[in-house]
Design brief:
Strand content: 5-15%
Shape: rod-shaped
Order of helices and strands: EHEHEEHHHHH
Number of strands: 4
Low-confidence stretches: 122-136
Strand order of the largest sheet: 2-1-3-4
Distance between the termini: 153 Å
Mean pLDDT: 76
Largest sheet: 4 strands, mixed
Length: 206
């Protein structure tokens, strides 16, 4: 892409000459390649410039004055708009060119992009990291819950196993107690009741 600067080499206006010098000097300082096109000595350049400057950018008399700046066939602006872009550190944007890496304009453009869209790459990484951490934590929590449940079941089984002999002993003692009670509660026969009396009589006779 070539930057075209339409100017008048033989202009009698001091103001126009100064504006042209300002534009060319700043482009050279930025090391921007440009092509100066003289409208004073070349009628084709004059006609092309007048035809391609947008109507809304033309003065009331319809004849745009130099310097007029184009990027190939695309209109960039006149001295006033160029000066505004210069003050805003946006000359490369004004010219339709990418700013060189590390330049002030590149940094400003990066800041503006981040403000509008956010840090896309870092934001993605952070989101993915948060999501992955959430998934991992969720998995770990689920595994921990399962492990706790398994430990509780094992403890219950162990408790039941340890208590089993005690329960068996208690049950056996209850059975023996019931048998003993049963023997005590059995009715005494007439022979057994008479036996003590006979024994008492024998003792008296003696």
């Amino acid at each position: 892409m070539v930057i075209k600067v339409f100017l008048a080499s033989s202009s009698g206006s001091t103001a126009i000459k100064k504006k042209q010098q300002d534009v060319l000097g700043f482009l050279e300082a930025l090391k921007v390649d440009y092509a100066p096109l003289d409208i004073a000595c070349n009628e084709d350049n004059r006609m092309w410039m007048r035809e391609n400057v947008p109507v809304e950018k033309k003065p009331t008399n319809g004849i745009p004055l130099p310097p007029q700046i184009f990027n190939e066939e695309s209109y960039c602006g006149d001295y006033e708009t160029f000066f505004d872009a210069k003050e805003d550190n946006a000359v490369f944007a004004f010219l339709g060119l990418p700013p060189p890496p590390g330049s002030k304009e590149a940094k400003e453009a990066e800041k503006a992009f981040i403000l509008e869209n956010g840090p896309v790459e870092n934001g993605t990484v952070e989101i993915e990291t948060v999501e992955s951490e959430t998934v991992e934590n969720g998995t770990d929590d689920a595994e921990d819950e399962e492990n706790l449940e398994a430990e509780e079941v094992e403890e219950e089984i162990l408790d039941d196993d340890s208590l089993a002999p005690v329960k068996q002993e208690e049950a056996q003692e209850e059975v023996e107690d019931e048998e003993a009670k049963g023997e005590d509660d059995q009715p005494v026969s007439e022979e057994e009741e008479e036996a003590p009396e006979v024994t008492e009589q024998e003792e008296e006779d003696e």
